[in-house]
Amino acid sequence: MSVNQQAHAGPPYGQPQPGYQGYQQPAYGGQSLPGAPQSQYGAYNGPMPGYQQPVPPQGYFPSLGFPSKGSPVSLNSDTSSLAPNFIGSLRAPPTSGAPPPASGASHPSGHVAYSQFEHGDVQNGIPASAAPMQRPPASQPFLPGSAPTPVSQMSTFQQYGPPQASVQQLRNHMAGMTIGSTAASAPPPAGLGYGAPRPPAMPGPPLPGQTVAGPPSSQPNHVSSPPPPSTMAGLHPGPPMSGLHGPPPPTHPPQPGYQMQQNGSFGQMRGPQPNYGGAYPGAPNYGSPPGPPPPPKRLDPDSIPSPQLNELPPQQKPRHRIDPDAIPSPIQVIEDDRNNRGSEPFVTGVRGQVPPLVTTNFMVKDQGNASPRYIRCTSYNIPCTSDMAKQSQVPLAAVIKPLATLPPEETLPYLVDHGESGPVRCNRCKAYMCPFMQFIEGGRRFQCCFCSCVTEVPPHYFQHLDHTGKRVDFYDRPELSLGSYEFLATVDYCKNNKFPSPPAFIFMIDVSYNAVKSGLVRLICEELKSLLDYLPREGNMEESAIRVGFVTYNKVLHFYNVKSSLAQPQMMVVSDVADMFVPLLDGFLVNVNESRTVIASLLDQIPEMFADTRETETVFAPVIQAGLEALKAAECAGKLFIFHTSLPIAEAPGKLKNRDDRKLINTDKEKTLFQPQTSFYNNLAKDCVAQGCCVDLFLFPNQYLDVATLGVVPYQTGGSIYKYAYFQLETDQYRFLNDLRRDVQKEVGFDAVMRVRTSTGIRATDFFGAFYMSNTTDVEMAGLDCDKTITVEFKHDDKLSEDSGALLQCALLYTSCAGQRRLRIHNLSLNCCTQLADLYRNCETDTLINYLAKYAYRGVLSSPVKTVRDALINQCAQILACYRKNCASPSSAGQLILPECMKLLPVYLNCVLKSDVLQPGPEVTTDDRAYIRQLVTSMDVAETNVFFYPRLLPLTKADVDSDSLPAAIRNSEERLSKGDIYLLENGLNIFVWVGVNVQQGLIQNLFGVSSFSQISNALSTLPVLENPFSKKVRSIVDMLQGQRSRYMKLIIVKQEDKLEMLFKHFLVEDKSLSGGASYVDFLCHMHKEIRQLLS
Ligand SMILES: [Zn+2]
């Protein structure tokens, strides 16, 4: 290898750019690397059927210059276009469309038909069978009304086991549960840290808290003492409440007599409600009057004893024992929804229909609204007025995952090609053609469902209407009959009015001492040799269009020329990192197949070249700058994969210092721990977004490296961060390689801009996720992959009507992995209500929690954590108090009454409040908190659900002869039995907890050792043993791994072992070591807050 040490003399990057290569056929990377984990739904099964519309005759030009929503028509710059910056000035906006072919008259005054459209060319609708396919292989025509065959059960999902006994009533001692108003966060006990536990075998700082406050083994049945009911350690005191300090005297002796408060409908899940006005699944109910609200559930503490009180041993008997089985159970709600809604497909033809829970395995049929896999809302029936919305305090938000992966049984969005004229849009608000546009005047015009503006139907798009006013080609056109579809974008939607080049991937490897010594550099290089054959490609393409480049770095950068004509790769070193440039004219970004030999040689040589390095310092910002400059020079978008090990302290732009300070926790300065220490990276991120340079960051820290700052660019460019603390080759390589494989292979769009349009009355006001915004409406992402979610909040700006409801249209403009510019459109129609009860009956608590968590996690950047927590509690108390006041039938003030759809709000909210970002335990690192904060911000609803309330499965109850999972149990220590083995997963970790009394045979079968004491908790995988129990458990682990977007870290926890503290952190119904309240305590606290609001 020849090495050129170059001074700063950056020649212009002169590599000739490939021109636009024509429209490639789209697909979704159905390939997968052997050994790579299955994504949640598995890979796409190849290309999807095409849909094509004949190219219209020439002469019609797309409308470009119309003003934004609400403005009178003018021909100024298009401020409402999805891509304002990308649109040049090349075309004069039309002043009209051509007349419809069926009518030669009645032009609107002043309109000039400039189209040369010939009537004879018009087709009334596209005969599906005759239309040439846009996506050729294995294509099936888009048939009118055709829908995928329902598949009742997806193999990748499994039902939990039999339902638990249904909770039929909430009756408890609540009124006596006075809350000590001065109770502040309990001082965190010294204990084992959460976050990345150091592998026990690893030398390094010992884990503190080796003494274990394990479960009291002297107690029968492993039942832990319930917390004292009257203290709420960990809940911040609000305003002093009635001078109560400390536990009050017992006031509620057990009283006899259960009484059914409601007629058995309590506990029934969100499925078809007997009284619910026929909305559930099936027939459309547009505008149908809502049925009466379902009976609320009640807790009546005044009259009901706790049934188990007398069964408890005396020393455990609390003064107010609330039966945990009598408070709403997440397990039960999940189970009931599965049973009620898992068997039927969810058909999206009905406005405002609440989808099944994210934990339910269901199939979706698109009949005009976007699948809940793309969009979920906090409520599907939103208040007509802002006063009502304010009164309820229920946030109106949508969680949008524009490129979500679908299960193989469901149909990917069809690609619609309207030819040179591009997609048909409303003249005023620029909304895209969708099923809710109203065609009028015999089909010659359409009225916008978002802004009511009337737009001429372009001649090529004209079609006659049937007797119901529906276009006769309704079922032939995805954009008229489906909730989700794609348009092929024209050159007007491209940067600089130029079709994009295919994107590039640049691999940038830290080769400092730590990275080399740990074996990481060699591991990455070995992996890339095979992984490069699995770059994303569009369906029928033989090879990926993505070009690749390589950089290594410590405090200087090394670029590699891997041009196919070279016998050996060439290295060029840039030691002046102050003003980064790319020293290669040609040969930096290459086609993998063409340069295969040179690349392989390079990947072989890199570990050798740096094997003896003594360099410990690294730079970071110059690495991103180098990637950015390379993409700029190549005039393409792309992704940087950066593998980085340490705080960048070497002299360079973006140099950082160690500013970690745990003493700031619980002070007003705590927020600085989440903020970047310099604005340098914000500016760099902005430049990256402008170029379409997305950054994925793989971190391997052995100490603090300031994730809050290093994460800025990945975060704002739509990228991902992966963190492997104390990376050890032996235990962590499998997890890292799985993550890397999935990250490289997954579907991703580049240079993406998303806009959410709404019908008159509401508008998108706030956005949460990994992106950059340069104005108030457009969400920009250098890269957007299939896992990324954007949560959007809406506010009223006018009144809504029950008749017309409310509409959302999410339009995502992006470049596919082959360089095709596309628009993906998702539409969703919601109901509107004048009765609060309708709002509460159509809420989605999981989505609400997703929104609230993201809202709170953003809040910690600017407010003290305590303020954020208090605000969350207050908002939820207001939500529930409003329900109680306006929707529930009159009842004793001592009753806690929760809306059916929100009965899990308290337990889930408590999990958010107790999470490491909002209430860190003593050993949670600053980097862990910053990392989790960023992860959660991009999570979808299923991910936040399991992250905040982990899934706990009794493995010893698993049926080894069936494919099903054992029934999940609630996250509380008192649900664990010493004789069983459990699995707990939260999307980041999998714990396998082993009780001290587990049969020796089971231990032998699962771990291959003969006794409990011999189980090593250093294991990172379960041993492969040939027996049914081992196979079953490993298959469960594999299945769970396949459902998550990241490979979870497996941690073996032995009961009463030091790691058990870490495990207990995830038993979220219990009081936490960091001071978080137990579920029971928190419910009491919420009840008190609600009563205060009502009094
Ligand atoms: Zn409009």
Provide the list of bound ligands, each named once: zinc ion
SS content category:
alpha/beta
Helix fraction, binned, reads: 10-25%
Distance between the termini: 80 Å
Question: What can you see in these coordinates?
Answer:
With 1095 residues, the protein is of the alpha/beta class. The protein is built from 21 helices and 30 strands. Strands 1-16-15-14-13-17-18-19 form an eight-stranded mixed sheet, with helices on both faces. Strands 6, 8, 12, 20, 22, 24 and 25 form a seven-stranded mixed sheet that branches. α13 (845-859) packs parallel to α15 (905-913) and α14 packs across α21. It is globular and about 75 Å long. Bound molecules: zinc ion. Zinc ion binds next to loops.
What is the topological layout?
Layout: E1 2-6, E2 297-299, H1 330-341, E3 346-347, E4 364-365, E5 375-377, E6 381-383, H2 386-392, E7 396-400, E8 415-416, E9 438-440, E10 445-447, E11 454-456, H3 478-481, E12 484-488, E13 504-510, H4 513-517, H5 520-531, E14 547-553, E15 557-561, E16 570-574, H6 596-609, H7 621-634, E17 638-644, H8 680-691, E18 693-699, H9 707-710, H10 712-716, E19 721-723, H11 729-745, E20 748-758, E21 762-768, E22 779-785, E23 790-796, E24 806-815, E25 821-833, H12 836-841, H13 845-859, H14 865-886, E26 896-898, H15 905-913, H16 926-937, H17 941-948, E27 951-954, E28 981-985, E29 989-994, H18 1000-1007, H19 1028-1043, E30 1049-1054, H20 1060-1064, H21 1079-1094
Parallel strand pairs: 1-16, 3-4, 6-25, 8-12, 13-14, 13-17, 17-18, 18-19, 29-30
Antiparallel strand pairs: 2-26, 5-7, 7-23, 9-10, 10-11, 12-25, 14-15, 15-16, 20-22, 20-24, 21-23, 24-25, 27-28, 28-29
Bound molecules: zinc ion.
